[in-house]
Write a structure and sequence with these properties.
By secondary structure, the protein is of the alpha/beta class. It is globular and about 60 Å long.
């Protein structure tokens, strides 16, 4: 069973329907392929992309926006360290990221007003402030739609490891992700329900079952010739069969195929191996991958949880992701975006015996890398106590507009909802020019 991090809101992320999950969400592989069938090739060059969701809201002061000269009740217990980039310092518990700081840009002074996990997550995962009357599509859904006609037929265009806040919104389930619902383990083949052989089934046994199901599908199709659900079913079942039996599809999800020297920097923890899988999927032709590292809701034991678990896992996985993409020659063609839903309070709370930091959307950090992003820089600034941006700061909408620009998508483009309402991909954002070359 997949693990999910429960936030202090008292409920899991709003993924109850699990749209886009093969085998558990009501979509067969054939239906998934039919839903994501390309209708046209828009001819626009679109980069691949990876979105890293730091679910729960990481403290900006204890990660990428330290304030070593602030009072102790604000600066906290951690020291800051110099990075490879002159004049840029980050938390002492991120030494591997400090060594590759030239490969990513830090955006400081990002600010919004939504302090609830669900609303903040919807904002960050779409680049649009949530509306009660409309569910905006996440980045992965938009990339999937815009890259129709350009995706390998034996691979899903959009994969979430293991799941996340990227939903298709008003675009519809056809643009939703394939959720793996589990994370890979170091040195082991990765089995994804709906793609891998299950229960020891051999390829010959699968082929026999496929032939039987094909015969049954043809029978039902003859009875329901007017139904869109069965229209072209044989063709899509053939594609499902091709995906499952495709060596490329199986190998794309199999991190044990990586050389030990390449895999070693990713470590043996779940997040690091998810990052390793992401590099492999992008290399194989998957268009958009989301990764999730949860547990950042540190109202209590903030410093213990960060130092002992969260920051070492982030440091190992994310540094290996940046370095691995570069080593494979993929960093220039892959846009990377790393963010939680908000930051955490500058002043440390003193509730109980293990102090923490509370929700704080008025100031947070984000990271961007790859494509046209100029690494080795800090864009934006927070004030002396990281209580807010120094100057105007940036909204999540601005970072979203920049992310889309880096991918190669016009964020001002309009889509029509099923009621004919025109909706702009990013409603209020502007590109942060300093980030892009």
């Amino acid at each position: 069973m997949p693990r999910f991090n429960r936030n202090c809101d008292g409920m899991l992320r709003r993924d109850a329907l699990k749209v886009g999950v093969l085998g558990t969400g009501g979509l067969s592989l054939g239906q998934f392929l039919k839903a994501t069938e390309a209708n046209e090739d828009n001819g626009q060059p679109i980069r691949s992309a990876i979105f890293v969701d730091l679910a729960g809201g990481p403290s900006h002061l204890d990660t990428f926006d330290p304030k070593p000269n602030a009072p102790r009740e604000i600066r906290g217990k951690f020291a800051s360290v110099k990075t490879k980039v002159a004049g840029v310092e980050i938390s002492e518990h991120l030494p591997k990221l400090a060594k590759c700081a030239d490969k990513f840009a830090i955006v400081r002074g990002v600010s919004h007003t939504l302090a609830a996990h669900r609303l903040g997550s919807e904002y960050i995962n779409t680049g649009n402030r949530p509306l009660a009357s409309l569910e905006y599509p996440g980045y992965g859904a938009v990339v999937t739609k815009e890259s129709e006609g350009r995706n390998p037929p034996t691979l899903p265009p959009f994969v979430s490891i293991p799941s996340g806040g990227q939903r298709p919104g008003f675009l519809g389930v056809k643009y939703g992700p394939l959720n793996t619902n589990r994370v890979p383990q170091a040195g082991s083949p990765f089995s994804v329900r709906g793609i891998s052989m299950q229960g020891g089934m051999t390829l010959r046994e699968f082929e026999n079952r496929h032939k039987l199901l094909k015969d049954l599908d043809s029978t039902f199709a003859s009875l329901e010739q007017e139904s869109q659900l069965v229209e072209g079913l044989d063709d899509f079942n053939r594609k499902a069969f091709n995906m499952i039996t495709s060596a490329k599809a199986r190998e794309a999800f199999d991190i044990s195929k990586e050389t030990p020297s390449f895999a070693k920097p990713f470590g043996d923890q779940a997040f690091g191996n998810s990052c390793l899988l992401a590099t492999r999927l992008i290399e194989s032709g998957v268009r958009f991958v989301t990764l999730r590292l949860g547990g950042w809701d540190t109202h209590q034991s903030n410093f213990e949880r960060l130092a002992e678990n969260l920051l070492p896992n982030l440091d190992t996985g994310l540094s290996a992701l940046f370095n691995g993409l570069e080593q494979k020659g993929l960093l220039d063609s892959t846009a990377v975006f790393v963010s939680g839903e908000f930051g955490r309070t500058p002043k440390i709370n003193q509730r109980g015996t293990q102090p923490g930091r509370d929700h704080y959307p008025r100031c947070m950090f984000m990271l961007m890398a790859g494509g046209d992003v100029q690494g080795g820089q800090v864009v934006g600034e927070s004030d002396e106590t990281a209580a807010g941006p120094k100057g105007d700061g940036f909204a999540p909408d601005d970072v979203a507009a920049t992310f889309y620009r880096n991918i190669g998508i016009d964020f001002t483009k309009e889509y029509d909802t099923d009621t004919g309402r025109p909706i702009t991909i990013v409603r209020d954002g502007s590109v942060i020019r300093q980030l892009l070359g």
